[in-house]
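Now for my pick.
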Amino acid sequence: MKVFDCTTYYKEDLMMEVRFNVLNKYVDKFVISEAKYSHSGEKKKLNFNINKFPEFKKKIIYLTVDNEPESIIYEKNNNNFIEKELDKRTNSVKRIDYQRNKLEEGLGEADDNDYILYSDNDEIPNLEKFNFKLNKNKILIFKQKLFYYKFNLFFDRINWYGTKGCKKKDLVSLSWLRNIKSKEYPFYRLDTILSKNKYISAKIIEDGGWHFSQLKTPKDIEIKLLNGEQHAEFKKTGKNLEYISDLVKRKKIDYDHKAKSQDYKYSSEFSLKTVSLEHMPTFLKENSKNYLEWFDFEK
């Protein structure tokens, strides 16, 4: 039985370095896809350089997405094709799903009973205590702690369900796996029978890892927000680099994860809490001195 760790890449070398080191003992292959355009549709160069990670080179399967999905919604305006404001979020999701599903081309070496894990590259599962051989569930969902800006700036308002996994024989697509509801449903829930994202046979793994969100410089955070899934919503806020830098300095976030999908999410501020190294992956505990700028040790 082998384990394939699948993720997407934009320009996150720090996160990939940590991910490789944390998971190397437990993962047989790292499958990575990178697109030649951002989630907002902007063309970009390919940034991943496998030679930066020589220790893991033999384990890495790197795939590129050359074109946008054919289902992108454009409106013809004179001789130009443009995105309507209402379609921008939908198109972002289509691009993300397309990039995720590209990862399936890297699973040719996987057997039916091998495990396929998917998470965004800043969502790192905790595999130290999990035994795949003893697992009897069809779907695995890792319950993770959420951090912002620094490895140890903890956001305790929500739990994060990032990494999800299943055996290759049960895999429908990587976007399907990502979109499975993060909940264990009881056997009497009949709505699970025909559902594509609700499962009785799902297992939520406690202490399931770490989501290191926005672990970037303020400038790189701005670039990500302007090109990510919620780029249209963020642009409407009018918030700039100076504003983002101030949030980081004050250890605050201004995104309401509990807001409904139709609500405005940039309406409140929430504080982050500095926690000790005990909450970190073993690799970061043992190598924190190599990443001092990415820790908050102020009292």
